[in-house]
């Protein structure tokens, strides 16, 4: 399977509509890939909190849905279109990822479960998702997570238990915590014996420099590709049989012990 991660640059001087069309053009350029991935909140910037409500759209028929649906269809790819600020039917805001089929159909949405901010920013402006989401592709099953989710290993265990073999993590990760980004991406791959496709952004979001360094890690923890700081496309060939092979050769997942108790409980 050929996967292309578009490490998209967010320029605050560029309009959202212009950025949307530029992203669609970059997706179309990946024709020949099987899966294309965009980063988190690339329409507005992950730290542009004041833009969340103003640029929020519906997941099922908003302008980003329309542009990404057409781009996926034109390129003939599965497209994880990163995430958008979604205005839910309940009136709440969500950080929502969209996944499209090569025919341009919306295959899945994922509302980010762990919101970043420690009672500020995203943590108070957006509602939390509650559902683990997987998507079956020919040859692999994707498990969906977003940015800050990367710090919560129990979410990924749940995705693996639901059948995930490839973990896709769009992000708007700040440059000052780059070391955590690469460390955690490798850890999630090793502990879950799964591919990790972690797609970040370049540029700056509301004055917060972005880490870039999108990374692809295999089920044994080997880094197959890593981007630099600027806008870049990583294209990697993934061995669809490797996840099963690693899990068979080193069956650590079978040795998990669940339901452990503290003494005296």
TrEMBL record:
<dbReference type="InterPro" id="IPR003010">
    <property type="entry name" value="C-N_Hydrolase"/>
</dbReference>
<dbReference type="Pfam" id="PF00795">
    <property type="entry name" value="CN_hydrolase"/>
</dbReference>
<dbReference type="InterPro" id="IPR036526">
    <property type="entry name" value="C-N_Hydrolase_sf"/>
</dbReference>
<protein>
    <submittedName>
        <fullName>Carbon-nitrogen family hydrolase</fullName>
    </submittedName>
</protein>
<dbReference type="GO" id="GO:0016787">
    <property type="term" value="F:hydrolase activity"/>
</dbReference>
<feature type="domain" description="CN hydrolase">
    <location>
        <begin position="1"/>
        <end position="240"/>
    </location>
</feature>
<comment type="similarity">
    <text>Belongs to the carbon-nitrogen hydrolase superfamily. NIT1/NIT2 family.</text>
</comment>
<keyword id="KW-0378">Hydrolase</keyword>
<dbReference type="InterPro" id="IPR001110">
    <property type="entry name" value="UPF0012_CS"/>
</dbReference>
